[in-house]
Amino acid sequence: xxxxxxxxxxxxxxxxxxxxxxxxxxxxxxxxxxxxxxxxxxxxxxxxxxxxxxxxxxxxxxxxxxxxxxxxxxxxxxxxxxxxxxxxxxxxxxxxxxxxxxxxxxxxxxxxxxxxxxxxxxxxxxxxxxxxxxxxxxxxxxxxxxxxxxxxxxxxxxxxxxxxxxxxxxxxxxxxxxxxxxxxxxxxxxxxxxxxxxxxxxxxxxxxxxxxxxxxx
Length: 217
Hints:
mainly alpha; Rhomboid-like fold; 8 helices
């Protein structure tokens, strides 16, 4: 699923969302200047290693700003650019920042649980995708009928689509579940953190629903 844009203009400037995107880009630029051994040390220092979480709890936050390659960061930042501004507009700037980090933390904890149960708890978790999955969950709750323009990969083709957000994000979420189950026997090898996506989405959707019912700061 490759989103390009949505028909859902924001009423305010989403400066928190933009700041997160720019921070991720700056960190990635720093990463690519590092020699291989220094880069690996950086990943293990600031990425989230489930087995070392209690020794380095700050990595629940720092891992969200680290990415493994140009496709990794471009894909994540594209999703955040398309969907994040509207969620920030709906929640407000401060609540959006708290929401983003809570979604990322929830995603990391779920992926860590899977790593301890069937995977390898010494493989570092990096990337903003868990927090961004939370943004998708909130977007689906707040704006289910907003039209999303993008592409759906089909073998070697990209099929253009114009779907309501509930359909676009719903297909994305089903894809995460199917892949999470499919690759569960190989979780010890690392790879895509499917359960971080699932956990982040569930946390984000739940927070959006809860905060929609009551005013939280």
